[in-house]
Amino acid sequence: MNDKIDLLMEETGCDRGEAELALEMCGYEVEEAVRQIPRLLRDICALKGKFLLPTKNQHGLVLVILNLKSRKVLRARAVMSFDPAVCAISLDEDWFAFEKHLYGCRLWDGSLPAESLEVEQHLTAHFRAAPPEIFAHLREAPSEAAGGELAVPLRALFRDPGLSVRLKKDILDLGQFQSLRKAPVPAARRGKPAAHAAPAEDLLVLKIALEEDPEGVPASELHAGDMVSARIVDGRDIAKYLARLFGGLTASGPVPIEAPVEAIESGPDGVLLRARFAVGVAGDGLVPADRRLKATRGAAQGQGDGSWWRRFFKGLTPGDRRSNAGTRGRGRPMGR
């Protein structure tokens, strides 16, 4: 029994109590417990916020997703604009739809890319340096009280006494957060929040280069949910445009940005890794299995067997796999 508990703790990163509960629920079958335990770990906090700077007539959306147990920042997204329509989306939308709308707003007239990136970086730095008490407070606090925690870094950044912030907090289980393949919403239109409809995600896959680190994690040991540092090296115009939006392209060239690993496939040519940059945008990179990469263990350490990835690449040759970095999610060539 103790061996099964220890194995489950090692595979999933859960604590002993969570491992015991999962095994008991699954009839002490370790494989089934590994699949089910993400639904038991309600450690993901999604903070969806709207803010207004009345003196500058600037409107903004922010999305911060935290792992309250590991105290890691899983996502920090923001958009600022002179267009009040960016705030048309309801805070009651799930984080996936909210992020989809947020990214759509970045393409509208009046958006402020540099300011948006500055907000993201400031929020990331704030929560990475936050003491454990903040994460404990966010777990129990209602949305109104949690809004105060989000207002602190925004007030420090803008120094505007007129700043107003509205926030909705959602506590998710790990399985909900990992469900990136759920049916997405269509791109947001100006003045209208995104609506639930589309049956399948139209995924744009970019070519990426993964940052190496002599003291880092071997590529073969990475799991879905770990964070890697990647450069977007895709030469297409759309890729360069998105890289600028994500903060991964400067006047000096591509710069590394952090992204969560979505899936991994090991093959004779090495490890093929897919990183997720945003809703509808991912990146593929191929590295030798023993190559050490700059990475940090994420919320989903040990989770995900990449089964959808295997179905996607079933029957493809290694050469096909390498060329897939320039295709959409269902394998169609992506034109300029």
Write up this protein:
By secondary structure, the chain is α+β, with helices and mostly antiparallel strands. It has 3 domains: 2-39; 44-178, no CATH class; 204-326, no CATH class. Helices cover 32% and strands 28% of the residues. The protein contains 11 helices and 14 strands. It has helices at residues 2-12, 16-25, 30-36, 95-105, 113-128, 132-140, 143-158, 174-178, 237-246, 307-313, 318-323; strands spanning 44-53, 58-67, 72-81, 164-172, 204-210, 212-218, 227-232, 249-250, 253-254, 257-267, 270-278, 281-287, 292-293, 295-296. A 5-stranded mixed barrel has the order 5-7-10-11-12. Strands 3-2-1-4 form a 4-stranded antiparallel sheet, sandwiched between helices. The protein has a two-stranded antiparallel sheet with strand order 6-13. The radius of gyration is 20 Å and the shape is globular. It starts with a helix and ends in a 13-residue tail after the last helix. Mean pLDDT is 77; it is low at 180-201 and 299-336.
Give a brief outline of the structure.
The chain has 336 residues and is of the alpha+beta class. The chain has 11 helices and 14 strands.
Strand content: 25-35%
Mean pLDDT equals 77
* Percentage of residues assigned to helices: 25-40%
Biggest sheet strand order reads: 5-7-10-11-12
As residue ranges, the low-confidence spans are 180-201, 299-336
The global form is globular
Distance between the termini: 56 Å
Give the SSE string.
HHHEEEHHHHEHEEEHEEEEEEEHH
Number of helices in the DSSP assignment? 11
The biggest sheet, with number of strands, parallel, antiparallel or mixed sense and barrel status, is: 5 strands, mixed, barrel
Derived structural class: alpha+beta
Q: Kindly state the number of beta strands.
A: 14
Q: Quickly count the domains.
A: 3
* Radius of gyration (Å): 20 Å
